Amino acid sequence: MRIKEHPILKFDYQNEIHFTYNNQAMIGYEGDTIAAALYDNGIRHFSNSVVHDRPRGLYCAIGNCGSCYMRVNGVDNVKTCMTLLEENMVVESEVSVASND
């Protein structure tokens, strides 16, 4: 899901970052937010709505909505759309979600 070639823009992806999401090994790149790396790895289901328990994905990507909250390195309610990915991060959904929703 990542743009790798573009007729005008040049993307220089370097420095792979390894992390886990719900115990699955994943790879992102330096400069990625957690949410961008998850999206690039095919993860679309980030959380569930509080009232109706409906699936939520990446929504605003600017830290306002809360749809992207996850547990990161044991800390709950981390805004993954605003948090840069780091080597060996442990990212977990705060709700029970299938890994490829």
Automatic annotation (TrEMBL):
<keyword id="KW-0560">Oxidoreductase</keyword>
<dbReference type="InterPro" id="IPR001041">
    <property type="entry name" value="2Fe-2S_ferredoxin-type"/>
</dbReference>
<protein>
    <submittedName>
        <fullName>(2Fe-2S)-binding protein</fullName>
    </submittedName>
</protein>
<dbReference type="Pfam" id="PF13510">
    <property type="entry name" value="Fer2_4"/>
</dbReference>
<dbReference type="InterPro" id="IPR042204">
    <property type="entry name" value="2Fe-2S-bd_N"/>
</dbReference>
<dbReference type="GO" id="GO:0051537">
    <property type="term" value="F:2 iron, 2 sulfur cluster binding"/>
</dbReference>
<dbReference type="InterPro" id="IPR036010">
    <property type="entry name" value="2Fe-2S_ferredoxin-like_sf"/>
</dbReference>
<dbReference type="InterPro" id="IPR006058">
    <property type="entry name" value="2Fe2S_fd_BS"/>
</dbReference>
<dbReference type="GO" id="GO:0016491">
    <property type="term" value="F:oxidoreductase activity"/>
</dbReference>
